[in-house]
Every structure is written in C-alpha cells, then in structure tokens.
Design a protein that fits this description.
By secondary structure, the protein is of the alpha+beta class. 40% of the residues lie in helices and 26% in strands. The protein has helices at residues 20-26, 45-55, 64-72, 90-96, 116-123, 126-129, 131-141, and strands at residues 5-9, 15-17, 30-34, 40-44, 76-78, 85-87, 101-107, 110-115.
C-alpha cells in the first residue's frame, strides 16, 4: 500500500526521484500514465492490470468513448536508474503541468505525481475540503 507525501523537483533532463518507500513497493519495473484531475498515476505492473480490468476492461473497443479511455490511460514502462530516478515523458509532463516542484502522493494502490502548486490549490479548495463531497459519496455509494 502506497502512503505518504514527498516533495521534490524535476531536473533539467526531466527526471524525478522516486522516494525510497515507493521504490520498495513498486519493484524493479512499473508503469506511469495520465491520471484524472491533472496528475500522473504510477502503478506496479500488476496494479496497472487490475486498474485496467476494473476501469477499462468492461468497455467494448467498438465504442469511440472506450477507445478514448484506453488511449488516455496508455502507460509508459519505467525502471529507476541507479539513483532512484525516472524520466517523465514530455507528453506526461504537459498533461500534469510539471515544470519544477512536484509532490508524489501515495494513494493506496497507486502513486499520484502532481505539480506542487496544483496539488496545494486542489487540497485546499472547498470542493476537496467540503462536507458536500462526503455527503455526495454517502448518497451515491452508501459510504
């Protein structure tokens, strides 16, 4: 299970450090893909397969919307270098608006990588902090 928040920066070669705690859980190879809300998702290989099975696998590729979703979550294989870094591909950097400071957040079965400013704005917003969110979950899912 991925937990914790780690602040770091992207270097001039588009590399970021994967925190040791996350590297131990990820193993030698893993994947990175676009995520919702303007972040990136990092999964173990098995975690990515589970994610696709639950979120994409139920849709027929005969439907244009399903093909868009499959393409949105197209993953890039990753391995850390000797210093625990990975390269963030340009298309993913653009998606997450990553320029300098980032935050890696453990979210149970995956890691989210955020532009630090966007993460701070998101987590202090009324939408994120409001009771309406919890009430909406309760109504929709009985949580």
């Amino acid at each position: 299970m991925f937990m914790g928040e780690f602040i770091h920066s992207i270097d001039k070669k588009n590399r970021i450090i994967v925190p040791v705690r996350f590297r131990e859980e990820l193993g030698d190879s893993f994947v990175i893909t676009r995520g919702y809300d303007g972040c990136l998702y990092v999964f173990t290989n098995d975690g990515y397969k589970d994610f696709l099975d639950k979120n994409v696998g139920t849709y027929s590729i005969n439907r244009p919307e399903a093909r868009k979703l499959i393409r949105f979550f197209a993953a890039t294989p990753c391995e850390t270098d000797a210093n625990g870094r990975i390269i963030i591909p340009e298309s993913l950097r653009i998606h997450a608006k990553i320029e300098k400071d980032i935050i890696s957040v453990g979210v149970n079965d995956h890691i989210e990588i955020w532009n630090k400013s966007l993460w701070e704005a998101y987590t202090t917003s009324e939408e994120f902090m409001g009771n309406e969110f919890a009430e909406g979950l309760e109504k929709a899912y009985g949580v």
